[in-house]
Specification:
single chain; alpha+beta; four-stranded antiparallel β-sheet; 4 strands; elongated
C-alpha cells in the first residue's frame, strides 16, 4: 500500500531541511526535490513543495540524497 506525501514550506531551504529529516528517519519514503508552486492564483506568494510516496513494509532505494 502506498500513501502520497506532500511537504509545503515558505522557502526552499525550509522544505529541503524537512525533506532530508524525513528521508533519514523513514527508509520507506521517496521524495522529489522541492519546487516552487506554479498556481497563477497565488502569483507573488508561491510556496515550495516536495512530493513523494511512502510504501509500508518496503525499504526504498534512492538514486541520490
Amino acid at each position: 500500500m502506498k500513501v502520497r506525501v506532500r511537504l509545503c514550506g515558505e522557502s526552499q531551504g525550509e522544505c529541503e531541511k524537512l525533506r532530508k529529516h524525513f528521508l533519514k528517519k523513514h527508509p520507506q519514503l521517496i521524495m522529489a526535490k522541492p519546487r516552487k508552486g506554479s498556481n497563477p492564483k497565488y502569483s507573488g506568494k508561491q510556496k515550495w513543495f516536495s512530493y513523494g510516496d511512502y510504501e509500508f513494509g518496503k525499504v526504498r532505494r534512492r538514486r541520490n540524497d
